[in-house]
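During the reporting period, our protein records have gained a structure token line. One record among many is quoted in full directly below:
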Amino acid sequence: MSIIITCEHAVNTVPAEFSRLFRGHEDVLSSHRGYDAGAAEAALLLGSLLGVTPVMGNITRLLIDLNRSPHNRALFSEFSGNLSTAEKQRLLDEYHAPFRNRVLEAAEKAEKPLLHISVHSFTPVLKNEVRKADIGILYDPAGKREKAAAAVLTDGLRALPYKVMKNSPYQGKSDGTAAWLRKLMPDSEYAGIELELNQKLLINGRFPEEITKKTAEMLV
């Protein structure tokens, strides 16, 4: 089994030509809406442990969400939703399409079967709801290989002092990079798992290394 790693919401970077959209709203870029805090560091460490170079996002999700399909209404946020058609197309052409092309190239080159780990983090409280999971393992229950991989990761991570939950705080079959790849590759060749880490676990901007190391251990 080969592995690829992605981190769609790695940064809160705003290209200079779009900085005007966030004047007076700079604080939102540093929030959970601007990027997935700690996810980039976790993805890079996981990649280092597994000998894999992660495919990293390079733009804030508030301009264009690399983890959403072009048809998804959430592709653009309230900050970018009123951009001109030409500006939206530029974001698609210069950021969204190249990211997905890099992911697809990595997936196609990898030996099969392939396991894809998409690394994310989430805010502990959303809309006054406290998220129960410390670590979420997201997958599509209809996929036999995904179901098996999710079970292995969940069981392994439960050896640590964290609450590990399947398909929490989101459903693994929702629109995203993994869902997109499922449509392009058969279940016999591809399994996609989203690793979701609760931002309450962050220490100086990083997640405890034991989480990433245990994840890598379960994948070797």
User: Anything to note?
Assistant: The longest strand covers residues 114-122. The chain has one domain: 2-219. The chain has a mean pLDDT of 97. Helices lie at 26-29, 39-50, 85-109, 144-157, 177-184, 209-219.
